[in-house]
Amino acid sequence: MRDLTNRQLRLRRRPAGLPSPEDFELTEEPAPVPGAGQVLVRTLLLSIDPAMRGWVAEGPNYVQAVPVGGVMRSFGLAEVVQSRNTRFRKHDIIFGLPGWQEWAVLDEQDILRHVDAAAVPLSAWLGVLGINGLTAYVGMVDIGRPKRGETVLVSSAAGSVGSTAGQIARIRGARVVGLTSTEQKRDLCLRVFGFDDCINYRDVPDLGRAIEEACPEGVDVYFDSVGGQMLDAALDNMNVAGRIPVCGTISEPADLHATGPRVGRRLLVKRLTMQGFLATDHAARMDEIARTLATWIEDGHLRYLEEITSGLEAAPTMLRRVLDGQNEGKSIVRVAEFEPA
Amino acid sequence: MRDLTNRQLRLRRRPAGLPSPEDFELTEEPAPVPGAGQVLVRTLLLSIDPAMRGWVAEGPNYVQAVPVGGVMRSFGLAEVVQSRNTRFRKHDIIFGLPGWQEWAVLDEQDILRHVDAAAVPLSAWLGVLGINGLTAYVGMVDIGRPKRGETVLVSSAAGSVGSTAGQIARIRGARVVGLTSTEQKRDLCLRVFGFDDCINYRDVPDLGRAIEEACPEGVDVYFDSVGGQMLDAALDNMNVAGRIPVCGTISEPADLHATGPRVGRRLLVKRLTMQGFLATDHAARMDEIARTLATWIEDGHLRYLEEITSGLEAAPTMLRRVLDGQNEGKSIVRVAEFEPA
Hints:
The structure is a homodimer. By secondary structure, chain A is α/β, with parallel strands linked by helices. In chain A, about 25% of the residues lie in helices and about 25% in strands. Chain A has two domains: about 5-125 and about 305-335, Quinone Oxidoreductase, Chain A, domain 1, CATH 3.90.180; about 130-280, NAD(P)-binding Rossmann-like Domain (Rossmann fold, 3-Layer(aba) Sandwich). The longest helix of chain A is centred in the middle third of the chain and has 14 residues, at about 130-145. The model of chain A has no long low-confidence stretch (mean pLDDT about 95).
């Protein structure tokens, strides 16, 4: 191999509040060399996810925090350039955790799956057929379990997870109402994703009341990626035996210090189930679920949006856009062009 | 029928805080006469339950609040004295909602089941084979689902529900740790109910730390009838994929104004399920579950305690004892002796 320079984005400091571009710094070093059992990959596309806020924060989480000075953790698609692992060959496209860098040496556990680069646009594997689609499917199908005629309320409805979750609920025959933060996103939910109704929560004086009006028969499933006061307002509108899959708490501080109304009595009075879940726990079902989702895409029942920006150095800005709710659809950073061999 | 006087306990006012004896008043009126489809019953035994706090409080609940001036709602066992319903005959013993009164006219929906007065001591149908046993079974078996070797933490461990729930978890092969409020109750949990360990939470400076020490491998199931800070301490000790059946929130105000740490992020990070449930939703399975519990009683695997006091007028004092956590085992008020026909 010729000598390669590896541009990387490292965590410069622990963010105070939401991570900003200034919390990261661009560094360069020679591309790494794979050891026994490892592969060297070239990063193609990076997935910019709300969960990254938690990954750079202090406090307990489902993964270790990215250390200050460390390369930012990130899901992405990458091409195998050199393999010292018999499960991977040169030119394989893999979905895994390359991080915010141009080249990465990955252990087997950093690689979640092989990806079929021919079947659908490559970027789809990062969103609707990737972790976001898996999150939407597990949360809605396994935990939400909407029945025909039930009402499903979806937070972050125009986002990659929310838009997919809402469309799955519609495929299952539910009436679907979205919660989103701008008129433009509301329009997307209604026109592109086919939601039955959508609330721009920044545009209503009383969110609980707005949900009540949009869901006159109450809410059977609340797909929660937000927590905080939006959850409170949803809880006030739940029907008996309702289900609340929790895939994120983006409106709450990433530490565990948020306070608010206690939920126990609400869960009891309405016999509700509130369940936290992580798509990565269900990685073994990813291929099976991606096939189901791909069928729905082909049928025209499942649509998705992407916002693709080029250049590794755009990643921190794109992350902040996601955390500020300014993105439209799945946020992706293109690090290198994919040139089929 | 001869003329009968019906002594009744009515709600005198909406309680400020926990209901006290002064919140009820003893009244007398002629015993009522059953209309078409109704039955007249003589109350034998009344079940004194923590849920009664919620029944007399303002605010949303799973049943309408008892109106001021109304006879206090209560589960109990009663004997049919006169029947104008073909499903019930004179001398039948029924489990239902006679309320705090000596005689009651019941509609069919006020009667949950017939009771076999010959099989076990009659009082058992109010506790371990009644709503409390059903609550323990549904919460532990259906929602908690303890596996062999897992750790189960049980609140109100010496109470009628908690002691049964803990013993069911032990039958399923789990290690069971109780939470209770006195040394005497702790002793009951260890010696009578066979818990593996038990914490007197009034005797420890840091409950979270005490749970951590008593559950060195973490908590897989927390059976919650308490809510509040005890739940917070349990949440800090949950294992990934833990389950929290919620059957009560006795430490929180009966309105929905309690505040505390938000649970969403804790549920997410540990992939926990928190589920409110009510035994009465599962009344159709009561006979089947009672048979299972009765088998365990005969086997010696399931033990229960009762505290039976005679006289209708004792009910308010007994209720306060229950709410103050001073009772030992199922609290029952005997209103009339059962004399088999």
